[in-house]
Amino acid sequence: MEKHDGGPVALVRAALVEAGVGDTVRTFSAGVPTAAAAAQALECDLAAITNSLIFDVGGEPLLILASGAARVDTALVAARLGTGKIHRASPAFVLDHTGQKVGGVAPVGHPKRIRTLLDETLQAHGLLWAGAGDHNSMFSITYQDLLRITGALELAVR
């Protein structure tokens, strides 16, 4: 493990420290761009990986923090939120709203707060792992701390 200074990871580290959860970022030389790769590198359950998925809802970003073992049901989420269609965002849209590239998006460290949903099934895990701003970094956090620092709405997303 090595420290990764600068760029999106530094912003994620700063957001974690500012929120009072501490810097738990780990960086992997081989990269962890998918939930499966992260679970393997971290030797944890795939379901404990928290995917940060950006969707486009009428031009506004929606961040869904979902279990790596699940597929988000966008029709279900749209119905529960009372919104129009929810579309997977383009890589350019994701980068514009988060400052982070697809495959490394973190739940925090964005230029401004993004409306966030938290997959309530994640609370079954004592420790969660989430992307930390690039394809090589992850951070650990509890469900309650993730809920608190993101201001997310808890929701069944599948």
From TrEMBL:
Residues 31-148 form the YbaK/aminoacyl-tRNA synthetase-associated domain. It comes from the Bacteria. It holds the Pfam family tRNA_edit. InterPro entries: YbaK/aa-tRNA-synt-asso_dom_sf, YbaK/aa-tRNA-synth-assoc-dom. Signal peptide: none annotated. This is Prolyl-tRNA editing enzyme YbaK/EbsC (Cys-tRNA(Pro) deacylase).
